[in-house]
């Protein structure tokens, strides 16, 4: 689950990570109230108005702006709220901004004593360890740094059962060129950041930039936080942080139905049990010369009800010209799945206007084919992978 910057910062702050403070606002008026409140709390005169969308590169797209007085806060917030913000990480049409974060200016006017660093915490799947990636080249595109000056990116691997060791935090502060008070602050920052990463069951933190202010404070100015969906049950309080307006509506609906669904650009809808078979099915479609319209894993229980829900979700995509159902009957028997498909089809009547190709393999596959062929429904059946591929070609040519 991806979080907004303001939510990520809330979590970081709760673990003692120093963050650029701020308040979220839904309207230009609320932005002014937020700015006034922030001035009372922090003494800041200048404010940064930051678009809250699930995408980075907002600064470049005009979604992060400095306001030097309350009139500017109102004006800028008014411009940013409601805009379709286009950044290198959004779709080409941009993302609608519904909220802004009004944050304290931490760069202080005319300040040349600041430095910006990059820091992320993530899982290195190859070694099974957590990893802190960091760089002196903060505030800019890390992909570009990785390409042009890879020697300026450092990594520190952390054994999860042991945790971050003091010497590791000191090494990071040292490699970032810090000394004195800033060095100590960075050690504390890294320690708190790692505790937050483990504590909230994140799968990724990316803080870019981490700022060293002129008074040697280390501050998370940005926060990109992704939580591990599989651990969300341990954090009931984070559930409300989900912003479904950031997700594709069709994917939200599929998730609510317990289906693993990812919307894609092609024309052949897929209904498959098991993620591996779903991947293979997408390959099969490409091999036949077409593109998959989705990834859909219906899971173990492919009964009539689930099949019908899956049908309805796939058919919401207007690009779908055919549906390929590819089910392996291992635990679930193919004849039961076949009956489920036939029942769902009957139930949906005229709602299905595209050809359906069904490939059932495994226990009772022959019986399943018979059920489909004798159902009187216009469903094309197959047992072998190649047959299924040929049927898709026939249906679409
Ligand atoms: P991103 O563009 O989506 O990564 O958003 P960031 O939160 O990283 O903000 C973009 C840029 O805005 C940062 O790299 C900073 O240069 C700038 N910025 C952020 N906070 C402040 C601030 O308090 N004062 C000033 N002057 N600039 C800021
Ligand atoms: Mn950033």
UniProtKB/TrEMBL annotation:
Top-rank taxon, per record: Bacteria
Key words of the record: ATP-binding, Ligase, Magnesium, Metal-binding, Nucleotide-binding, Tricarboxylic acid cycle
Record-level Gene Ontology MF annotations: ATP binding; magnesium ion binding; succinate-CoA ligase (ADP-forming) activity; succinate-CoA ligase (GDP-forming) activity
Limits of the ATP-citrate synthase/succinyl-CoA ligase C-terminal domain: 271-387
EC number: 6.2.1.5
Binding site for substrate: 273, 330-332
Residues noted as binding ATP in the record, renumbered to the chain: 50, 57-59, 106, 116
ATP-grasp fold succinyl-CoA synthetase-type domain: residues covered: 2-210
Pathway per the UniProt entry: Carbohydrate metabolism; tricarboxylic acid cycle; succinate from succinyl-CoA (ligase route): step 1/1
Catalytic activity field: GTP + succinate + CoA = succinyl-CoA + GDP + phosphate; succinate + ATP + CoA = succinyl-CoA + ADP + phosphate
GO biological process, one term: succinyl-CoA metabolic process
GO cellular component terms, A-Z: cytosol; succinate-CoA ligase complex
Positions contributing to Mg(2+) binding: 208, 222
Cofactor binding: number and manner: Binds 1 Mg(2+) ion per subunit.
Family: Belongs to the succinate/malate CoA ligase beta subunit family.
Function noted in UniProt: Succinyl-CoA synthetase functions in the citric acid cycle (TCA), coupling the hydrolysis of succinyl-CoA to the synthesis of either ATP or GTP and thus represents the only step of substrate-level phosphorylation in the TCA. The beta subunit provides nucleotide specificity of the enzyme and binds the substrate succinate, while the binding sites for coenzyme A and phosphate are found in the alpha subunit.
Subunit annotation: Heterotetramer of two alpha and two beta subunits.
Full protein name: Succinate--CoA ligase [ADP-forming] subunit beta
Organism: Paenimyroides marinum
């Amino acid at each position: 689950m991806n979080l907004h910057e303001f939510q990520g910062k809330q979590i970081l702050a709760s673990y003692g990570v120093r963050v650029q403070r701020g308040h979220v606002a839904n309207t230009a008026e609320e932005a002014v109230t937020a700015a006034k409140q922030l001035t009372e709390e922090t003494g800041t005169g200048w404010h940064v108005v930051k678009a809250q969308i699930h995408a980075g590169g907002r600064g470049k797209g005009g979604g992060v702006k400095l306001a030097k007085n309350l009139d500017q806060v109102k004006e800028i917030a008014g411009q940013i709220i409601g805009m379709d913000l286009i950044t290198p990480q959004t779709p080409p049409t941009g993302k609608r901004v519904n909220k802004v974060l009004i944050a304290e200016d931490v760069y202080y006017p005319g300040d040349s004593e600041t430095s910006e660093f990059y820091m992320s915490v993530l899982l290195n799947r190859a070694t099974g360890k957590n990893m802190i990636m960091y760089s002196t080249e903060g505030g800019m595109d890390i992909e570009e740094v990785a390409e042009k000056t890879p020697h300026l990116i450092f990594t520190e691997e952390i054994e999860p059962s042991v945790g971050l060791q003091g010497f590791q935090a000191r090494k990071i502060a040292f490699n970032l060129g810090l000394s004195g008070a800033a060095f100590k602050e960075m050690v504390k920052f890294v320690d708190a950041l790692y505790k937050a990463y483990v504590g909230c069951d994140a799968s990724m933190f990316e803080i870019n930039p981490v700022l060293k202010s002129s008074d040697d404070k280390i501050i998370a100015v940005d926060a990109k936080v992704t939580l591990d969906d599989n651990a969300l049950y341990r954090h009931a309080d984070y559930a409300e942080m989900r912003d479904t307006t950031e997700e594709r509506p069709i994917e939200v609906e599929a998730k609510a139905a317990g289906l693993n669904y990812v919307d894609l650009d092609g024309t052949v809808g897929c209904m498959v049990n098991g993620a591996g078979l779903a991947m293979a099915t997408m390959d099969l479609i490409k091999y036949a010369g077409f593109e998959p319209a989705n990834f859909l894993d219906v899971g173990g229980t492919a009964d009539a009800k689930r099949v019908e829900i899956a049908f309805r979700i796939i058919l919401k995509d207007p690009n779908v010209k055919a549906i390929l159902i590819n089910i392996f009957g291992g635990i679930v028997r193919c004849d039961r799945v076949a009956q489920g498909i036939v029942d769902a089809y009957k139930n949906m009547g005229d709602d299905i206007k595209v050809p359906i190709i069904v490939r059932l393999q495994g226990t009772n596959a022959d019986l399943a084919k018979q059920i489909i062929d004798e159902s009187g429904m216009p469903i094309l059946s197959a047992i072998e992978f190649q047959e299924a591929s040929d049927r898709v070609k026939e249906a679409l040519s």
